[in-house]
Design goal:
By secondary structure, the chain is α+β, with helices and mostly antiparallel strands. It is built from 2 helices and 6 strands, in the order ββαβββαβ.
Length: 80
Amino acid sequence: MSENDIPLCFADRDRVYIISKILQGQDLSRKLVDMGLIPGTEITVYKGGHPGPVIICVKGTKLILGCAVAHKIMVHPANR
């Protein structure tokens, strides 16, 4: 993780981020990998999650994540 990493639930809407790390056990990590959420993946945030769900786009697919799950996904801004 870098000093620029923040939990996904605090990410700004309409911005592009890169997933840095997933802070959870194997069960959640496996589920997120199955959804395409792996470190190094670029995502776009459509709706921030504090409070409430986070809506993101990953590889052309919109996903809705609860704030508790989004809190365990660390991201940093993409350099564009």
